[in-house]
């Protein structure tokens, strides 16, 4: 690898080109592929003869702007800069020459906690003229195949030149499409979220409907709870008053979790109602808990009081039920009967209810203890990495934007068996991205 190195300040003559081995990422580091880079001459030439009167004074913000007035000031400044040179000398600036491809540079995050890097080549291009709309769900099966939930909302312009992709699309670990299924006249209105159960079946909901569905791995509809187009409201329509009580219908459900111990089905219900509903494996109602909370209950962290959207439900290896109380900026934790255990807060200083909220979806690291919890914070457009045991936020990745590795309405996430994190984006994001853990 050709590298352009500098070990001290001075004129451009201090630079030298050397052949160096491609670095390996250490703890808290990530490998960054650099195609081109540049050096500002001022960065290497900002220390000249200490007797000059045209050096620069360091202002409080740390930038170099104001001219120095005395040679003593210049000498003092040079001493400060030479003291810092060790930091720069530890950074290898890898310049990708025009003829060089794939040069790698080692970079450290500002907080020293880089954990993931985006895979820009995943997934592969879709077949034919398929175009996906909003991607409202992503889940992973036992073979690390990735399923996404597509919405039937391509633009008018796209409809003229392309084809609406199917509701559910399956990718292999390399990102190739290997299967798709779903009938737009059968799937829930406004498809939302998915999960793969312990028997490798696919489950999904719809936040424009009152049903959830279970499909076989290859796409055969096996079970539906609720009647399509009917919701749990005073008049059975989306305009009615939420009843939060039906044993057979939902009101815009958002997520499903299946207990591997007995097949019981836990439903986050959801966008209209404010509850967790539990059924046995055949679809028979067992119990429910939760109600629409008040601001006072949210501020106090009262268990079972949900603010507006109950956006996810996940069963941990510890046997506890984790529920995304999105607009309350918290994850509520319950036992399987519905007894409240504790809150995991991800606050960002907003008054509750938080309009966008922080806790949109959660996943766990693949180790048995599930040491890390990954939270899709759609409010800040970032995936937060938490210590599962303490609930403390350790770090995160992503930021608002439209470039690779950034999020526009990051909506749900999933984790595969080797720790890759997949994030699905709705609104105008309309994609799924893969983030690999740094080894």
Keywords, separated by commas or semicolons:
four-stranded antiparallel beta sheet, 34 strands, Neuraminidase, mainly beta, 2 domains, 439 residues
Give the secondary structure arrangement, pairings included.
Layout: E1 2-5, E2 16-19, E3 29-33, H1 41-45, E4 56-57, E5 66-67, H2 71-89, E6 104-108, E7 116-118, E8 130-131, E9 135-140, E10 146-150, H3 156-161, E11 163-164, E12 168-171, E13 177-181, E14 191-196, E15 202-206, E16 212-215, E17 221-225, E18 253-258, E19 265-269, E20 275-279, E21 285-289, E22 291-292, H4 295-300, E23 305-306, E24 310-315, E25 321-325, E26 330-334, E27 340-345, E28 361-364, E29 372-377, E30 382-387, E31 393-397, E32 410-415, E33 421-425, E34 431-437
Parallel strand pairs: 8-11, 22-23
Antiparallel strand pairs: 1-2, 3-6, 4-5, 7-34, 9-10, 10-12, 12-13, 14-15, 15-16, 16-17, 18-19, 19-20, 20-21, 24-25, 25-26, 26-27, 28-29, 29-30, 30-31, 32-33, 33-34
């Amino acid at each position: 690898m050709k590298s352009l190195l500098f070990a001290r300040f001075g004129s451009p003559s201090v630079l030298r080109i050397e052949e160096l081995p491609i670095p390996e990422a250490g703890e808290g580091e990530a490998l960054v592929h650099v195609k081109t880079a540049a050096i500002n001459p001022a960065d290497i030439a900002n220390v000249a003869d200490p007797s000059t009167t045209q050096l620069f004074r360091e202002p409080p913000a740390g930038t170099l702007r104001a001219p120095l007035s005395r040679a003593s000031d210049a000498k003092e400044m040079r001493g400060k800069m030479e003291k810092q040179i060790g930091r720069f000398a530890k950074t290898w600036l890898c310049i990708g020459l025009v003829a060089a491809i794939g040069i790698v540079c080692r970079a450290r995050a500002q907080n020293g906690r880089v954990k993931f890097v985006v895979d820009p080549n995943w997934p592969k291009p879709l077949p034919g003229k398929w175009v996906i709309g909003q991607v409202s769900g992503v889940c992973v099966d036992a073979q690390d195949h990735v399923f996404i939930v597509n919405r039937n909302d391509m633009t008018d312009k796209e409809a003229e030149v392309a084809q609406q992709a199917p509701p559910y699309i399956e990718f292999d670990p390399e990102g190739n499409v290997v299967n798709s299924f779903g009938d737009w006249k059968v799937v829930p209105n406004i498809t939302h979220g998915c999960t793969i159960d312990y028997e490798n079946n696919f489950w999904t909901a719809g936040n424009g409907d009152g049903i959830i569905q279970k499909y076989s791995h290859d796409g055969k509809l096996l079970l539906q709870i609720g009647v399509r187009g009917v919701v749990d409201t005073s008049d059975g329509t989306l305009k009615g008053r939420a009843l939060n009580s039906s044993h057979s219908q939902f009101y815009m459900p958002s997520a499903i979790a299946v207990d591997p111990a007995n097949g019981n089905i836990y439903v986050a219900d959801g966008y209209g109602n404010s509850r967790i509903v539990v059924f046995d494996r055949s679809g028979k109602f067992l119990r429910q808990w939760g109600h629409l909370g008040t601001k006072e209950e949210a501020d106090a962290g009262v268990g079972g009081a949900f603010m507006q959207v109950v956006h996810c439900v996940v069963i941990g290896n510890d046997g506890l039920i984790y529920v995304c109380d999105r607009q309350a900026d918290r994850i509520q934790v319950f036992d399987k009967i519905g007894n409240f255990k504790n809150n995991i807060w991800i606050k960002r200083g907003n008054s509750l209810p938080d309009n966008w909220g922080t806790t949109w979806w959660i996943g766990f690291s693949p180790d048995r203890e599930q040491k890390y919890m990954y939270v899709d914070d759609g409010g800040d457009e970032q995936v937060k990495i938490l210590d599962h045991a303490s609930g403390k936020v350790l770090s995160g990745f992503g930021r608002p934007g439209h470039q690779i590795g950034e999020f526009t309405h990051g909506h749900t996430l999933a984790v595969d068996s080797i720790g890759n994190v997949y994030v699905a984006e709705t609104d105008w994001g309309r994609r799924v991205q893969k983030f690999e853990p740094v080894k």
